[in-house]
Amino acid sequence: MSDDTTGALTGDLYGYETLLDDDERKELAGIRRFLDEEVRPRVNDAWASSEFPLDLVPRFAEEGMVGRSYDLEHRPRASRLFTGFIALETARVDPSMATFLGVHNGLSMGSIVLLGSDEQRARWVPDMVALDTVGAFALTEPHGGSDVARGLETTARRDGDGWVIDGAKRWIGNGTIADVVVVFARDVADDSVKTFVVEKGTPGFTPTKMEGKYALRTVQNADIVFEGCRVPAENKLEHGNSFKDVNRVLKLTRGGVAWSAVGCQMGAFEAAIAYAKERQQFGRPIAGFQLIQDLLARMAGNVTASLGMAVRVSQLQEEGVFRDEQAALAKAFVTGRARETVALARELFGGNGILLENDVVRYFADAEALYSYEGTREINSLIVGRALTGVSAFV
């Protein structure tokens, strides 16, 4: 929802969007129209059915929402602030769609851009920018979430002119629809974590859709099994040779999760405002009741504080001085505030808040996934604590 006279987002009370230049704001307005007019009418049905509307995939590329974080031959890198606002706009309409793009744009393509050679980038990135190729990112395992850095069980062994991967991955977003999957496996020869690109249809690569998921239902999460999965040597990313290299990608994308969490709570907040103006009780709109206005003010504070932190994250990234603890703090804080905001929004709706037709229950459920993925609050808190004290509390 935006102000009819200015086009500004209702949830952007401090006008952070005005930090964008005029061309960026014009382009962002076009993306906003596309999301509101073409994506929003589809999201509740997709969420309810747990199916991804694949016909929308090329439209994201046509609207310029893909690959904007990277310098490309035909298009220079956009500002970090602008790409952050793209994530916000997508999530305020549907956090599932924002997650699809975050996995493809950030985790998968980001791994290839940051860890691949020039030849590897030229091989995969152009088709990923066009969304002719959809990407996924396979790090988490059935027995390894927060401790995956030390407990990675998937293995890779060099065999002749290629590598053989064995093991399993879990919670892999886009896993069943991806054309390329960035896979992290422990080299049995030197115990280091190496990075591979496994292409759809490779023998020994079996993705299976996870069922019974009640957050980000539109995202196609997969269990993936690797059984003697042979990949050619040129599919090992040249600069992906340790878990420190993995962290280079995660530091970049945790900032994106913060932006998505801002969008998630902004979507719920805007829905709550609209409902409060429409819903009549005791002969007048509930927007005129003090308790309702208190809920809205608390939500406004959360959204504004979260957006301010996300903006600063993008500025630090732009300046090239972004640190691990800053990424971790943003991810932990903003997803925590999102969890509270969507709960307050659901409270404002009363019983109607659990009806999908009113949207807020979708944000309520989706916030739980944002709160957990790409590092739980506890793990990110320990990263921050280590930076503050100089003492590691990791086991």
Automatic annotation (TrEMBL):
GO terms for biological process: fatty acid beta-oxidation. GO terms for molecular function: acyl-CoA dehydrogenase activity; flavin adenine dinucleotide binding. InterPro entries: ACX4-like (IPR045008), Acyl-CoA_DH_CS (IPR006089), Acyl-CoA_Oxase/DH_mid-dom (IPR006091), Acyl-CoA_Oxase/DH_mid-dom_sf (IPR046373), AcylCo_DH-like_C (IPR036250), AcylCo_DH/oxidase_C (IPR009075), AcylCoA_DH/ox_N (IPR013786), AcylCoA_DH/ox_N_sf (IPR037069). Residues 23-130 form the Acyl-CoA dehydrogenase/oxidase N-terminal domain. Gene3D superfamilies: Acyl-CoA dehydrogenase/oxidase, N-terminal domain, Butyryl-CoA Dehydrogenase, subunit A, domain 2, Butyryl-CoA Dehydrogenase, subunit A, domain 3. The keyword Glycosyltransferase does not apply. Residues 136-229 form the Acyl-CoA oxidase/dehydrogenase middle domain. Its cofactor is FAD. Residues 246-388 form the Acyl-CoA dehydrogenase/oxidase C-terminal domain. Keywords: FAD, Flavoprotein, Oxidoreductase. It holds the Pfam family Acyl-CoA_dh_N. Belongs to the acyl-CoA dehydrogenase family. This is Glutaryl-CoA dehydrogenase. It comes from Geodermatophilus nigrescens. The lineage of its organism: Bacteria, Bacillati, Actinomycetota, Actinomycetes, Geodermatophilales.
